[in-house]
Design goal:
This protein has 540 residues and is mainly alpha-helical. It is built from 19 helices and 13 strands.
């Protein structure tokens, strides 16, 4: 609370120099001498004496399986984009980290959770690994032909499930109360596709099942619609207290509320962090002040993306068990997927709008706002009628989303939160682009390509100016690094690099780096994109 550091995360990441008991004892004594109001200078001296600088428990690590020119680079026709992809491939070495042995021998002195295998971090203030970020990082690593690095990262996650029963939000003890979007099963699937390492699957299939059980046991809620009850999942963290990495902000926000409401606020903030969308208007619906974080109600919503991720994981589990010859378990997961699919259709799908929407448990209605997550079932292959893809494309047109030239906005609401307009995030581009690309309609595939082209241009232009990749981008006026939220925009950046490499791999023969507009054949997209293309020619 003394704010010795601008970013609360800096302090909770600093290792102790001596045993915790000793630190506490000295602090209690210091506090007693100064009547519980330690002067800033003494406090600074105390911290300097008892804590070490953050990041020292990690050392740089160059992955042993990194190689100079992976195959996918040859697919990229545009010379500038190919050179850029080569530079992004180089970044894996910069983002590689390995833990020092002392984290294992003295775990009580570190907030870092020890992991056996080295890993790739997002970048910037995020010097440990994060759960859902790592999925897009792994996709990029697999294109870079770094399957051994991916296997090590997967093993770290599996070890966490064995130890804690779930994967924490990130690799620190203060993240243990919450998880993040569950993509472990999908990570395993991607690794298997590249390596065919069935032995690794066989060894870890029960651990994958255990992780899905965590979501079933702790994050399930029943919803009644049309006289039937469905089981769906939500983000929910039943623990109060401020988040350690944002302690002063959470404490100050709680001070604006009556004392009886503070624990509930802290639990909702943690659920928002578990969603990966920390924070967004998506979670602020219906409060007295809809743009203030104090109105957060994450656990009162049934999110489209979470349920699509779990539905997809159940399908993958049934495939895994079939592959291993265990038909009874395969059937169990097929049944679970069918139930999830029926629930998604009955509760979250909106036939008239042509999209899925988060469901508000308190007000018993869908949240009709635009978020890219509304199309996650297409990406996850969790929808029952092929016509839904056609309707989803029309939904994007009706919402005017295709008029944005630099990326798909995270929402259409401007709250100052980082998961809102004007920010655009790499994983959300992937959810929409690959969702449309999987559709049978040529028009949906052409829109997917155009969205990929927009995103590649934005990332490439910013990189050309700043020689850096960013966690998020501001798409309101050309491409800029993003902003808003609780901390400054971070450079690096793991998942941004992964998504760019995926798009360059998929569309490398067609994507261009130049500023020319990609006019499309009239038969496929004129009606959809011509107005926005013409608009973009007008002076700003």
């Amino acid at each position: 609370m003394a704010k010795l550091y601008q970013d609360d995360k800096q302090f909770v990441d600093m290792p102790l120099s001596v045993a915790p008991e000793q630190v506490l004892q000295t602090f209690t004594e210091l506090s007693r001498i100064h009547n519980h109001s330690i002067p800033r200078e003494q406090l600074q001296a105390f911290v300097q004496e008892h804590f070490r600088a953050k990041g020292q428990e990690l050392q740089p690590w160059t992955p042993a399986d990194w190689k100079d020119s992976p195959q996918f680079l040859q697919k990229i026709s545009d010379g500038k984009l190919r050179a850029w992809a080569g530079q992004l491939h180089q970044l894996w070495k910069k983002l590689g980290k390995k833990m020092k042995p002392e984290v294992l021998s003295h775990p009580e002195r570190f907030s870092l959770i020890y992991s056996d295998h080295p890993f790739i971090v997002p970048g910037g203030r995020f010097v440990e690994f994060y759960y859902w970020d790592s999925y897009w990082v792994m996709e990029g690593l697999l294109l870079s032909e770094m399957a051994e690095t991916v296997k090590g990262m997967l093993q770290n996650f599996l070890d966490l499930v064995k130890t804690y029963g779930h994967i924490p939000n990130g690799g620190r003890v203060y993240y243990l109360q919450r998880s993040q979007p569950p993509l472990l099963t999908l990570m395993m699937d991607r690794y298997l596709t590249h390596t065919n390492d069935t032995t690794f699957l066989q060894e870890n299939i029960e651990t994958l099942a255990l992780e899905l059980d965590f979501w079933t046991k702790n994050r399930t809620v029943s919803v009644s619609v049309g006289g039937k009850t469905y089981l769906l999942n939500r983000y929910y963290v039943p623990y109060g207290g401020p988040r350690p990495e944002s302690y002063s902000k959470d404490a100050e926000l709680a001070n604006t509320l009556p004392e009886g409401d503070r624990e509930a606020l802290w639990a909702e903030l943690k659920a928002g962090a578990e969603s990966g969308w920390d924070f967004s208007s998506r979670w602020l619906i219906g409060g007295p002040n809809p743009n203030s974080l104090s109105s957060i109600r994450t656990s009162k919503l049934v999110p489209v993306d979470l349920n699509a991720f779990l539905c997809q994981a159940e399908e993958l589990m049934s495939n895994f068990y079939s592959r291993l010859g265990n038909e009874s378990q395969a059937m169990k997961y097929r049944t679970l997927r069918a139930q999830h699919l029926a629930a998604l259709n009955a509760v979250l799908w909106d036939e008239e709008a042509g999209a899925w929407f988060d469901y508000d448990l308190e007000n018993k209605k869908k949240n009709g706002e635009f978020y890219p997550s509304n199309l996650t079932p297409l990406w996850a292959g969790c929808f029952s009628d092929p016509g839904m893809a056609d309707k989803a494309l029309k939904y994007l047109e009706d919402s005017q989303i295709l008029t944005y030239q630099y990326g798909i906005p995270t929402s259409l609401q401007k709250t100052g939160q980082q998961w809102d307009f004007p920010n655009a995030w790499a994983p959300l581009q992937d959810l929409v682009i690959r969702g449309l690309a999987k559709a049978a309609l040529p028009r949906a595939q052409e829109v997917a390509f155009q969205l990929a082209q927009n995103w590649i241009r934005t990332n490439f232009d910013v990189y050309s100016r700043k020689s850096a990749m960013y966690e998020k981008y501001d798409i309101s006026n050309g491409g800029q690094p993003g902003g808003g939220g609780e901390y400054e925009v971070q450079e690096g950046f793991g998942w941004t690099n992964g998504v760019v490499l995926m798009l360059l791999d998929r569309y490398g023969d067609r994507l261009t780096s130049g500023a020319q507009l990609a006019f499309l054949e009239p038969h496929c997209l004129a009606a959809t994109l011509l107005p926005s293309l013409l608009l973009s020619l007008l002076p700003r």
